[in-house]
Write a structure and sequence with these properties.
single chain, 151 residues, alpha+beta, three-stranded antiparallel sheet, 1 helix, 36% helix, rod-shaped
């Protein structure tokens, strides 16, 4: 006489297989969420740094006169912007500022993850372009603004 007190070996193997499929799908979903979160944090960080640098430089330009603003173009690299005694340049992916230029050679990092810093001056019009991230990727974030010097 057969007794049905427990589960057969086949039933346990089927249940274990189903459980492993559900757990692996849950883990895959979790890993996708973690990677998406990391990408969004990277994107937010780059956007914040670009906006901070653009806002600071724009505020300085709005308070500067035409003779206080100098743009130096380099053939082999990013531009240099000088506003009064502040010197802005891009070294690697760090936008740096020297608040006591030319009396001091010490630079402070202003923003990380910056990949492009271009400045054009045409009379009283100054155009600044700052970009962060990689072109063609979802973390690329460009900002361009123009300031007309009043004095």
């Amino acid at each position: 006489m057969l007794r049905d007190d427990g589960y057969s070996l086949i039933e346990l193997l089927v249940a274990l297989a189903l459980l492993s499929v559900v757990v692996s799908m849950g883990y895959s979903l979790y890993m996708m969420s973690v990677k998406g979160y990391a990408r969004s944090i990277d994107r937010i960080d780059i956007q914040q740094n670009v906006r901070l640098a653009a806002s600071y430089i724009q505020k300085k330009l709005l308070n500067a006169s035409e003779d206080e603003v100098t743009v130096e173009k380099k053939d082999d690299g990013p531009d240099i912007l000088i506003i009064g005694n502040e010197y802005f340049d891009l070294k690697g992916t760090t936008l740096r500022v020297n608040h006591e230029w030319p009396s001091s050679a010490s630079f402070n990092p202003m923003a990380e993850g910056i990949t492009r810093f271009e400045v054009d001056k045409n009379g009283k019009r100054v155009t600044v372009s700052i970009s962060g991230g990689e072109v063609g990727k979802d973390n690329f974030f460009p900002v361009t603004f123009e300031v007309f010097l009043r004095r």
